[in-house]
Design a protein that fits this description.
CATH architecture: Alpha-Beta Barrel
Distance between the termini: 42 Å
Radius of gyration: 19 Å
Helix content: 25-40%
CATH superfamily: Aldolase class I
Number of domains: 1
Mean pLDDT: 90
Shape: globular
Structural class: alpha/beta
Length: 327
C-alpha cells in the first residue's frame, strides 16, 4: 500500500474553520465483507479494528451532552460491529436521527438475519453504495456477484417501505466514478438511475449522491502504482470552485475513529490528520464534551480538492445541490 499524504504539497488548499456541529460521523470499524477498489478506508474481511463497547458508550455520552441530532454510522461495514444494534437503539432513544452507510450485501450475510427489518423498525436512514446501475461496472469495482446481491437487497428494502414517496424510510444510493475522473452531474445521473433500476428491477430510492474518489488509501495507492497520482491531483485542483468551500462537510461534521479519536472528516481520519485541539496531540471524543468547536481551524491538505472540484463532493453528495437546497 503506497502512502499518499507526503505527496499532497503542490497546491496549498485554502484555510478553513469549523461552523456549528450538526453531524457526528462514527466509524465503527474497518472490517468489511467486501474489498472495493475505490475504498478510501482500505476496508476488508481481514481488518480487525472494531469499536469497543466502552467507546460506543463515549459516543452516546457525547450525543446526550452535545445535543447533536445526526448520527452517521460508517465503516467498513458498520453492521459487523457487535454493538451496532445497541448503539442504534440507544441513539434513537436519545432522539438522534441515525444514518447507516450500508454496502447492501451485508443484509444477506450469515449472522445478519433480521438486519433489514431492524433498520426499518428503528427508522434508520440508509445510504447505500451502488457505484453504477450496470452489472459489469459494479462487479469490476466491488467484486463478482455484488451487483445481483445488491439488487436483491434493494428489493428487500423496498418491500419494507424504504425509498417510497412518503419519505418515512429514506434510501439513498451512492455513485463513485470507475477511475480517475470527476463524477457526472448528480441530478441527471439520478434520473438515469431511477429510470433504469425502476424499469428493470422495480426498485425505488430517495436520492442519489455522487462522490469523487479520494486520492488516499486503496484508490490513492492504485494511482501511485499506475503513475497517475499527480495527474489526478492536477485534475482536482483545476476543477476547484471557491463557492464549494462554504458547503464542505468538515465545517459541520465531526469524524470519530474506532478508538474514539476525532478528526475533521473521514478522509483526514484515514490520513492520520487529527482535529486541532489545544493541549491534545490526538484528541479523543471524551475531550470534546462541553467544548464549542465553532471557529476551530480545520486540518487541510491537497486531498481536500476532491471535495471542492466541479459540483463538489461530500458524504451528502454534490455540494452544488446542497447549496441550492439550503438557499
Amino acid at each position: 500500500m503506497h502512502a499518499t499524504l507526503h505527496l499532497m504539497h503542490n497546491y496549498g488548499f485554502p484555510a478553513l474553520r469549523r461552523g456549528q456541529l450538526e453531524t457526528l460521523q462514527v466509524n465503527l470499524g474497518y472490517r468489511c465483507n467486501q474489498t472495493c477498489l475505490h475504498c478510501h478506508v482500505n476496508a476488508g474481511p481481514q481488518r480487525t479494528e472494531m469499536m469497543s463497547r466502552d467507546t460506543v458508550a463515549d459516543v452516546l455520552a457525547f450525543l446526550e451532552v452535545s445535543g447533536v441530532k445526526q448520527l452517521d454510522l460508517t465503516g467498513g461495514a458498520p453492521e459487523l460491529n457487535a454493538h451496532f444494534r445497541d448503539l442504534v437503539m440507544r441513539a434513537r432513544e436519545i432522539g438522534a436521527n441515525v444514518m447507516d452507510r450500508c454496502n447492501l450485501t451485508i443484509l444477506e450475510e450469515p449472522g445478519q438475519e433480521g438486519l433489514a427489518e431492524f433498520l426499518a423498525h428503528q427508522q434508520v436512514e440508509i445510504t447505500a453504495s451502488l457505484p453504477c446501475y450496470l452489472e459489469d461496472n459494479v462487479d469490476r469495482q466491488r467484486g463478482k456477484g455484488v451487483f445481483k446481491r445488491s439488487i436483491a437487497a434493494l428489493q428487500r428494502l423496498n418491500a419494507l417501505g424504504y425509498g417510497m414517496d412518503d419519505g418515512r424510510l429514506a434510501l439513498n444510493l451512492v455513485y463513485n466514478p470507475q477511475g480517475a475522473v470527476l463524477p457526472p452531474e448528480q441530478a441527471g445521473l439520478e434520473i438515469d438511475y431511477k429510470a433504469d433500476l425502476g424499469r428493470r428491477f422495480g426498485i425505488r430510492f430517495t436520492r442519489l449522491y455522487t462522490l469523487a474518489n479520494m486520492p488516499i488509501q486503496r484508490f490513492g495507492s492504485t494511482l501511485v502504482s499506475k503513475g497517475t497520482f499527480n495527474d489526478y491531483m492536477a485534475l482536482l485542483r483545476g476543477a476547484h470552485r471557491d463557492e464549494n468551500l462554504e458547503q464542505v462537510m468538515c465545517r459541520r461534521l465531526l469524524s470519530v475513529d474506532w478508538q474514539g479519536h476525532v478528526y475533521d472528516c473521514d478522509f483526514n481520519q484515514m490520513l492520520g490528520l487529527p482535529l486541532s485541539l489545544e493541549g491534545k496531540a490526538r484528541p479523543h471524543l471524551s475531550d470534546l464534551i462541553g467544548r464549542d468547536l465553532d471557529g476551530n481551524p480545520i486540518a487541510v491538505r491537497d486531498h481536500c480538492y476532491g471535495c471542492t472540484a466541479g459540483s463538489g463532493s461530500s458524504c451528502g453528495g454534490a455540494l452544488a445541490v446542497r447549496a441550492a437546497f439550503s438557499s
